[in-house]
Amino acid sequence: MPKLLSGAEIVFKALEDQNVSHVFGYPGGAVLPIYDELKNHKSIKHILVRHEQGAGHAAEGYARSSGKPGVVLVTSGPGATNVVTALADAYMDSIPLVCISGQVPTHLIGTDAFQECDTTGITRPCTKYNWLVKDVNDLAEILHKAFEVATSGRPGPVLVDIPKDVQFKKAPYDFKAKKVSKSLNGSKSETLSDKKLDQLIDLMKKSSKPIFYTGGGVINSGPEASKLLRELVAITGFPITSTLQGLGAFPGSDSNFLGMLGMHGTYEANHAMHDCDLMINIGARFDDRITGKIDEFSPKSKKVHVDIDPSSINKNVKVDLSFISDINIFLSALVKRFKSKNKNFVDVNKNKIEKWWNQINKWRAKNSLGFRNSDTIIKPQHAVQRLYELTKNKDTYITTEVGQHQMWAAQHYKFDEPNRWMTSGGLGTMGFGLPAAIGVQLAHPGKLVVDIAGEASVLMTMQEMSTAVQYKLPIKIFILNNEYMGMVRQWQELLHDKNYSESYTAALPDFVKLAEAYGCVGIRATKPSELDEKIKEMIEVDRPVIFDCLVDKMENCFPMIPSGKAHNQMILGPEEDKKISDEGKILV
Amino acid sequence: MPNSKSAYSEPSKISRSQRHIIVVWVDNAAGVLARVIGLFSGRGYNIESLAVAEVDRKQHMSRITIVSMGTPEVIQQIRSQLSKQLCVHKVAVFKRDDENILFRELALFKIKSSKKNQEKVKKACKKYNSVVLDKTKNSFVIQVTALRRDIDKLIETIRPHGLISVSRTGAVAMTKGAEVFN
Question: Would you call A586 and B30 a contact, using CB atoms and an 8 Å cutoff?
Answer without folding.
Answer: no
